[in-house]
Amino acid sequence: PNYVHSMDSAHLRAVIRTADTGLSCIHDSIGCPANQVMEINALIRNEFYELNTVDLLAVIYRALGQPYTDQRGKLDISEVLQASYIFS
After folding, report:
1. Using CA atoms, how far apart are residues 35 and 39, in angstroms rounded to an integer?
2. How far is it, in rounded angstroms, from Cα 72 to Cα 54?
3. pLDDT-based confidence at residue 88 (cuts at 50, 70, 90)
4. By CB distance 3.0 to 4.6 Å, which of 29, 33, 66, 76 could disulfide with 61?
5. How many angstroms separate the CA atoms of 25 and 27, rounded?
6. Which helix (H) or strand (E) holds 86?
7. pTM score, whole prediction
């Protein structure tokens, strides 16, 4: 659970730092002015993609000197950039 919460907060931090407008954020929900929804939607997707292009669990395991087997399967994280819904 701590890993997932850390990833959520890292994503939210990246979105806030990149946005050029004020955002209203609660946990993993991000609110913005109505006229900027599409822009922020793209920003959320791009930051999510950037955060998840690196297998961070592999980085952690290697740093600890532990063996690691990739668990991502056939996941193509770039699909998030064009998906109808990024979270559901």
Report:
1. 9
2. 11
3. low
4. 66
5. 6
6. none
7. 0.82
